[in-house]
């Protein structure tokens, strides 16, 4: 394995298969926050303290393997170019925060990129497990297994009453953040999402953008996750999230049926216009591309567009991001240049598909 492998492929291997409810749920994620005893937490550590923790962790994890996951690749953050870091964020392999803490920080990634372990981010260890579709329980099982494996190598900072101790108070307890990435175009088109999002918050969950806290919901893609980790078991946190997401799935399906029943011509017009923009534009900015990709994906899910696969749209959602665009074309690009290259890349990729025009 090498860094080049992780940043050259827009689609991680784990994303190439579709999980349950793949028409709405793009991915399921479990993230565990852990710190080590006898080391200052990264957010309060001096440069020397960060360095000591970094080398302590590296000695015990570099070139290690976890069962069927295979060997992890250790990637130092301070050895990467800014665009390389941006690509890893766009692929959800690292968090935007890890870039800020890049001094004596690293990430371990397994071969199919379904597991990444961030080192010296906000906490000493951030374990992330990703599954396609709606597979929260499967992600929890894997993350617990990796957590047990790591606990054999490290003494975790743990309090009998408070649970796992973390840099941010909202992570204290289980240290678990469960999240599901969902595509909700019909709820947005019918404006029902405006009243659903506040209701979700009342269940102790939060609706965020595609890259988590503080990010924008591009292309009608939202991240639904728990807010608190104290006072509930890991299983209860996951089950609460599962229940809400199952309701969201039903609401989105109902909104899609309503659009087909009451506004089919208008919906088809929107979808095919978006396909035309993607297929023929010479300039397209990232927000417009994300919106059009969302419309076309909805058309595929509803059977209105045939001959274009969901996987291509998943790929384009990553390929058209600023970091990946610049990596793909092997040059630094201004915003205007990115808009031109983005349109070129989308046209080339869609031309590989056997798009079938609708019949009246």
Feature tags:
alpha+beta; 360 residues; 15% strand; Creatine Kinase, Chain A, domain 2
Query: In total, how many domains does the architecture comprise?
Result: 2
- Unreliable runs, pLDDT <50, ≥5 residues? none
Please identify the structural class as seen in this structure: alpha+beta
Mean pLDDT: 89
Tell me what portion of residues adopts beta-strand conformation.
5-15%
In N-to-C order, the SSE pattern is: HEHEHHEEEHEEEHHEEHHHHH
CATH class of the largest domain: Alpha Beta
Distance between the termini: 50 Å
CATH topology of the largest domain: Creatine Kinase, Chain A, domain 2
How large, in whole angstroms, is the Cα Rg? 21 Å
Which homologous superfamily in CATH is the superfamily of the largest domain? Glutamine synthetase/guanido kinase, catalytic domain
Second rung of CATH, namely the architecture of the largest domain: 2-Layer Sandwich
Main β-sheet, spatial strand arrangement: 2-3-4-5-1-8-10-9
